[in-house]
Amino acid sequence: MPSNQQHLQHLYLRAGFGLLPEQLPTALQLPIHKHVEAIFSDSKSYQSLNLLNDNELRVVKLLFSDKEERKEMAMDALNRGRELNLLWMRQMAESKAGLREKMTLFWHGHFATRTLNAFFAQLQNNLIREKALGKFGDLLMSISKDPAMLQFLNNQQNRKNSPNENFAREVMELFTLGRGNYTETDIKEAARAFTGWGFNQQGEFVFRRFFHDTDLKTFMGKRGNWGGEDIIRMILDKRETAVFVTRKIYRHFVNNTPDKGIINELANIFYESEYDIGKLMNKIFTSDWFYSPKNIGSRIKAPVEYITQFRRQFGLQFEPENALLFIQKLLGQVVFYPPNVAGWAEGKNWIDSSTLMVRTLLPFSIMREIELPVEAKDDGDVNTEFLAQRNFRKLKATANWDALSKIASGSSEKEILEQLAAYLLQNKLSDANKQLILRNTPTANREAAVQFISLSLASLPEYQLC
Amino acid sequence: MASRRHFIKQSSLAAAGTMMIPAFLKAFEAQALSPDDKILVVIQLSGGNDGLNTVIPYRNDIYYRERQTIAIPANDALKISDELALNPAMEKFRRLYNDGLVSIVNSVGYPNPDRSHFRSMDIWHTASNSDEYLTTGWLGRYLDSQCNGICQSHQAIELDDTLSLALKGHNVKALALQDPKKLYQAVHSPVYENIAKYGKPADDSHENVAYLYKTMAETISSADYIYQKSEIKNGYADYPNSALAKRLKTVAELINGGAQTRVYYVSLSGFDTHVRQNQQQTRLLTEYSEAVYAFMQHLKSIGKQQHVAVLTFSEFGRRVAQNASNGTDHGTANCLFLMGASLKKTGVFNPVPDLSNLDNGDLKYQIDFRSIYANLVQDWLKADIAAVLGRNFEPIRLV
Q: What percent of chain B is helix, strand and coil (3-state, nearest 5)?
């Protein structure tokens, strides 16, 4: 049974970063459920980010360096952070394990962390990738012991005689239970249980027992000599955690407008399966409601999704790739630089007069090597000012027109337009838009028509949705 | 009035023939600024300006003890009171101060301060508590509160190509533009203009598609409108040559042109002075001081000094003690400026920071910045404090 093209694309856009044009013809021959199976099996093996082998910012190393060397190391760290960003962006665009990369991006926003240490950033990213489709409890436990997180939410400073509540608060408010499902006392008591959780220079978790508060604690009404692991276990025992996380997954992967009935049903499955993420995602992708018209083409693409889908659909190769940092910055989502621990605000928050203008002008600008008429803002932090650098503004990429041309096999411009629109857009195209594009389409040769039509479609508001 | 209506009919949106025209026309009429309406200009000093070297406690021994190489010598500082002096780079600012156009508020901050740039700026932008994460900004929510079904993004303008969180509301987001002409040209580039003018969604009921088309239509209409207003020049040109001055000049021109914009937002970046602070801060404070001076003179020349309040803030101040690189690291409370000819209180509003009573080497805040926002929201922009700030803060009556 062949697949409905729109359903098939919906699956691949949500469970990954979209089908490549060259995959489409054969993919259409298989039924959807076979594709769901293939998506999961393709994500079994995957590639970690292997840019750094070691923590280059070790305190020992810093102490024994002179001023110039330290400066160089700081510069080096910035460059590494930049390379790491581009490496992951490339991997998202090229990896066969599309679902795993998509889940990694989702959890990267969920467990949003910033660190200046590129090695720690890489460690966390690889940890998330490894556990992205496993048990949520494993992921949560590992993240709680991850150096970037311990550093970011100040658990390194969380000690018996001076507890720091930052991690204890966020783990409940943002990672698991959500507001209203715990008390201020729970936060204080949990913070005591996490005292002594730290990390060493190699980025390994260290339990520093002299800093740990061994007295009795009362968490969620239960009294005991709790440690951090106990707190995490008790948080997972609460069904509210399953509802909170499922709701976020639903809003990200299905529809920004939550459906309480479906979310509760999914949350039960999630909870009963001991938080099996893979099972939950599988249930979503195999449910009929996932393919209902109200879910297809309903989401405003996050900037990284937008860029990555664009790269895949057009086979874009940026030269130099630094332009991708600039585009991320302009559009408001730079991977490894979430705005705060709550991650990126999604949906309509992505769109304002400026970001939509950039998205509208970008496709033709890249192909015609036109500088965008916008500059990125320098946010004042010396560590991120590179993102606004002028020399990153040059946009240049090549596209794989052959692949798009094969999809557009029709002979007339109208047919070419219909075929490309069916591939590039998940929403229906109005007659007005079709006329608008056809009126301006060059008729000299087929290739020019394919290029113009594809880029025009990618400039439309409909292209911002998937 | 007649000419404005004429202009709107000529503008691209009218030509687009969409269903939004009547609403737009109504919006332009309903939300026209009356001559008494007040305008707020926000200047953000990004990176954490060192307040102690901006407004200097030149009689304080602790200040000189903690800043052996970067303290500003008392003889160089521009004295404004028995205790305080301005950074020598702020000569022009001192003139404004002497003219009674400035209010300096010391020790402004918030409880449980965060020393990270982006997080602290987030807090200033959203007016949240330090353990609270909001996705809308205080000025964005002001726009929301003003929007009765008809929302105009250009009621607030950020003089930049990208939009800050402060100006993003639930329903309305401000307009971002660095230069009216540049934006005008960008939205009239063939791709953008064609889609905004002639493009149409297949299905009006699709919420997000409609939202995207509406954003494009509003952007082109606002860009046209703002460009037209910016072209009404009064010829005032006595500005220094700097990025900040250029942006403030645009603001003054738009005010002169009668644009219906209540809020303008401008940033100056580079205040993250961990290394060799004095050199960098001198350059930045000179740029700041000269630009606001020219701006205030421009406003005076068009009779608008009474109608404009200028708020200057930074996401945090810096530590009291300098570091080993002749710079300063991230701190907490900071000074803040209000400027204008309608201030209720001018001069130094509250006592100088107490350097002998520190929190881990950092200043303790005395005034929550949200009580200053509350004042601006209620008494200047005439909006509801709770609607904009999420709850009631007791305003400090500066304007």
A: 45, 15, 40
Which of A154, A298, A300, A352 to mutate to test binding with chain B, by most B CBs within 10 Å of its CB? A352
B84: helix, coil or strand?
strand
Residues 6+ apart with CB under 8 A from B388: B138, B141, B142, B145, B373, B377
In a mutational test of the B interface, the residue from A62, A182, A357, A389 whose CB has the highest number of chain B CBs within 10 Å is: A357
Q: How many whole angstroms separate alpha carbon A166 and alpha carbon A170?
A: 6
pLDDT score, position B18: 40
Query: Which are the contacts of B89, defined by CB distance < 8 A and separation ≥ 6?
Result: B281, B282, B283, B285, B286, B289
Closest CA to A48 of A153, A119, A150, A141: A119
Q: How far is CA B377 from CA A160, B135, B310, B389, B398, in A?
A: 43, 19, 13, 9, 12
- Buried (b) or exposed (e) across A247-277, using 16+ Cβ within 10 A? bbbbbbbbbbeebeebbeebbebbbebebbb
What's the whole-number mean pLDDT along residues A366-381? 84
Nearest CA in chain B to A377: B162
The predicted structure's pLDDT at residue B239 = 97
Which amino acid appears at position A348 of this protein?
K
Amino acid, single-letter form, for residue A137:
G
Q: What is the pLDDT of residues A106-164, one digit of tens each?
A: 999 999 999 989 999 999 999 999 999 999 999 999 999 999 999 999 999 999 999 99
How would you classify residue A347: left for phi > 0, otherwise alpha for psi between -120 and 50, otherwise beta? left
Position A53 scores a pLDDT of 85
Q: Which of residues 137-166 of B touch A (CB under 8 A)?
A: 153, 160-165
A459: nearest CB among B191, B209, B274: B191
The string of pLDDT tens digits covering residues B10-25 is 333 333 334 344 444 4
C-alpha to C-alpha distance for B375 and B393, rounded to whole angstroms: 9
